[in-house]
Automatic annotation (TrEMBL):
It comes from the Bacteria. The keyword rRNA-binding does not apply. Pfam families: HATPase_c, HisKA. This is histidine kinase. One of its GO terms (cellular component) is plasma membrane. It catalyses: ATP + protein L-histidine = ADP + protein N-phospho-L-histidine. Residues 234-439 form the Histidine kinase domain. The chain crosses the membrane at residues 20-41, 150-172. Residues 173-226 form the HAMP domain. GO terms for molecular function: phosphorelay sensor kinase activity. Its EC number is 2.7.13.3. Keywords: Kinase, Membrane, Phosphoprotein, Transferase, Transmembrane, Transmembrane helix, Two-component regulatory system.
Length: 440
């Protein structure tokens, strides 16, 4: 049977690397938005109403002085702001020719791009008598400066993006490899090997602290396990004495002539005492598992199975069921006899307790002990849940029913045996215990 680790009910939050990457990405987006806004603001300066106000003010000043002066008089003829008084068909030589084709009104830089793509002007054409006043401001240098700042903004955005990308990649590699190394070291810890510790030679201070804390936790767990093992060892020895006294008293009582009604209870006491003795032996064996391997002991499982079938016949008294030994091939198994008795006895006991009629077939062939009953069967998924809960309850509450399950699981893990139980409601249960080939 396989236990699966319970999954957390809450949702997992993004990892640290993803959070850092998201933070850098957010910073990049804010920077890009800022540069975009700055570019738009500088572009708005090109078409700002200030240019119209400037040209209108210059034109109004000229018109306020009177329009009887010669053409071009009092109009600026140099600098960024220049003006022309157009009368007749003669065009000033310093005025761009296409200004003469403009209708009265204001033309910003975007409007003038259709006439001249090399220079940028804002132009105001105002009717004046039989002529027109043309005022223009040359904003070519301002637009060139705006274009240059826009290019600089784009370069800053590209460089910032590259820096963010490089920073994320650097953080990913500088953090991912040490974290993966810590994970591999933790995964490499063998729970069956005591006194294991993580190496703490991490360059990152945080990972070093984590490794130190894990080692401290391992030390506390080892001390706890050692206390539990010591308590189990002492308790097993303490229980051996009263069990031995009860077994001795049973042997003495068997020497006397007892009433027929007392024979049956005496046999039950003897059987229970023997089972307790085997359980104590198994607990002592498992408590020493992490310290040293016990000497290899080989037993004949076929002979032991035949004896255990006879020992469990009393469980079927009053029921219309019986054990049927179909085949018992000779099989040597490397384990103490008490250990094998506990596992096989549990399987036989479970089959007997859940069978009320029919045959319970016991077969030992091809390194596999199978026990098939004709009981009511059960839902394997629900049984797996009950099995896991029973194991937890046995460790938390010391439940007697969970002790058999606990010992069966630990023994199978210890010796590399595989226990498979298949069942369907109404069709009985099949328990298969597979053994690895014995090393001869």
């Amino acid at each position: 049977m396989t236990e699966r680790a319970p999954r957390g009910s809450g949702r997992r939050t993004p990892g640290l690397r993803r959070k850092i990457a998201m933070l850098f990405l957010l910073f990049g987006l804010v920077l890009g938005a800022g540069l975009t806004i700055q570019g738009n603001l500088s572009q708005q300066l090109i078409v700002h109403p200030i240019w119209r106000d400037l040209l209108q003010s210059s034109t109004n000043q000229y018109l306020a002085d009177g329009d009887s002066r010669p053409a071009g008089h009092h109009l600026p003829t140099s600098g960024l702001v220049r003006g022309w008084n157009l009368r007749g068909t003669t065009l000033p030589g310093d005025m761009p020719p296409y200004f003469a084709s403009l209708e009265p009104g204001y033309y910003d830089e975007h409007d003038m791009d259709a006439y001249d793509s090399d220079r940028s002007h804002a132009v105001l054409v105002t009717p004046a008598g039989d002529g027109r006043i043309v005022m223009a401001v040359d904003i070519t240098e301002l637009e060139d400066y705006q274009n240059m700042t826009a290019m600089v903004s784009v370069l800053i955005a590209i460089l910032s993006g590259l820096m963010i990308l490089c920073s994320v990649l650097w953080l990913y590699h500088s953090m991912n490899q040490p974290i993966q190394s810590l994970a591999r070291r933790m995964e490499g810890l063998d729970p069956e090997q005591p006194s294991q510790r993580l190496q703490t030679d991490f360059a990152l201070r945080e990972l070093h602290d984590i490794a130190v804390l894990v080692n401290r936790h391992l030390e506390r767990v080892e001390r706890f396990i050692e206390r539990e093992r010591s308590l189990l060892d002492q308790a097993s020895h303490e229980f051996r004495t009263p069990i031995a006294v009860i077994a001795g008293a049973v042997d003495v009582l068997k020497l006397y002539e007892l009433p027929p009604g007392a024979r049956r209870p005496l046999e039950r006491i003897e059987s229970t005492t023997r089972n307790l003795t085997e359980i104590m032996a198994a607990l002592l064996f498992l408590s020493r598992e992490a310290e040293a391997r016990a000497p290899v002991e080989a037993i004949r499982l076929d002979s032991l199975a035949a004896v255990l079938v006879d020992d469990h016949e009393h469980l079927l008294q009053g029921a219309q069921a019986s054990f049927v030994v179909a085949e018992l091939q000779p099989l040597w198994v490397e384990c103490p006899e008490a250990i094998a008795r506990i596992v096989v006895g549990n399987l036989l006991r479970n089959a007997a307790e859940n069978s009320h009629e029919g045959a319970i077939t016991v077969t030992l062939a091809d390194h596999c002990l199978s026990i098939q009953d004709n009981g009511a069967g059960f839902d394997t998924v629900a049984a797996a849940r009950r099995y896991t809960q029973a194991l937890r309850d046995s460790t938390k509450q010391g439940g007697g029913q969970g002790l058999g399950l606990f010992l069966t699981r630990r023994i199978c893990e210890r010796f590399g045996w595989t226990l498979t139980i298949s069942s369907n409601p109404g069709s009985g249960t099949l328990a298969e215990l597979r053994f690895p080939p014995a090393r001869r």
